[in-house]
């Protein structure tokens, strides 16, 4: 029997582990109730596969170490690929989309365990990494992970700055509009309308 070479995992949490608010409650509930039967159907469809695994993990229970190791930050998250190097799934979550993706993607993937299917460039890269001392490879992985975290942090900071700037601009706009109105804009328009009405009456 062949070993599993690709997996598709739904990494989730029980409902009370998610912070629900009036703003996200409907979407959260709708997303979960819609995805659950589709995901269970997908697991059934791949239950007998000898090379692909479709499963789910409860990140609040025994599966928490697995979720932590794979950088899960939101629920439900879907990861796929080589079991030792899972990637984020970013496609649609209805059954047809998931089934199509799984059928096309859950197959032998270029990796150290399947180097024979890699192109020459990736074979050379794998050979280089395998030849590195363990400490050196750990250092390289840590540096790469740090760059990813820094990119995520920079993005979040940028979004926060944009939100703060948006709020400031909104407040300035509203204050300017209010000041203009308080300076007599309403009376100006009323006087113009009154004058126009009076002029019309005089013509009669």
Automatic annotation (TrEMBL):
GO terms for biological process: protein folding. Keywords: Signal. It comes from the Eukaryota. Residues 1-17 form the signal peptide. One of its GO terms (cellular component) is endoplasmic reticulum. This is Thioredoxin domain-containing protein. The lineage of its organism: Eukaryota, Sar, Stramenopiles, Ochrophyta, Bacillariophyta. InterPro entries: PDI, Thioredoxin-like_sf, Thioredoxin_domain. SUPFAM superfamilies: Thioredoxin-like. PANTHER family: PROTEIN DISULFIDE-ISOMERASE C17H9.14C-RELATED, THIOREDOXIN DOMAIN-CONTAINING PROTEIN 5. One of its GO terms (molecular function) is protein disulfide isomerase activity. Residues 34-103 form the Thioredoxin domain. Belongs to the protein disulfide isomerase family.
């Amino acid at each position: 029997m062949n070993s599993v070479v690709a997996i598709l995992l739904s990494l989730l949490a029980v409902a009370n582990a998610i912070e629900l608010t009036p703003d996200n409650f409907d979407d959260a509930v709708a997303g979960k109730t819609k995805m659950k039967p589709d995901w269970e159907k997908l697991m059934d469809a791949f239950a007998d596969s000898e090379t692909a695994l479709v499963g789910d993990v409860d990140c609040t229970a025994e599966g928490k170490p697995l979720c932590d190791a794979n950088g899960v930050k939101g629920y439900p998250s879907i990861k796929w690929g080589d079991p030792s190097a899972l990637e984020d799934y970013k496609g649609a979550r209805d059954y047809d989309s998931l089934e199509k993706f799984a059928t096309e993607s859950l197959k032998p993937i270029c990796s150290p365990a399947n180097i024979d299917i890699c192109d020459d460039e990736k074979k050379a890269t794998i050979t280089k990494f395998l030849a590195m001392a363990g400490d050196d490879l750990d250092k390289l992985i840590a540096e790469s992970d740090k760059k990813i975290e820094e990119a995520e942090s920079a993005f979040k900071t940028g979004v926060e700055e944009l939100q703060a700037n948006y709020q400031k601009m909104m407040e300035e706009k509203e204050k300017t509009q209010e000041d203009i109105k308080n300076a007599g804009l309403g009376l100006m328009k009323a006087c113009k309308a009154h004058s126009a009405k009076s002029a019309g009456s005089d013509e009669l």
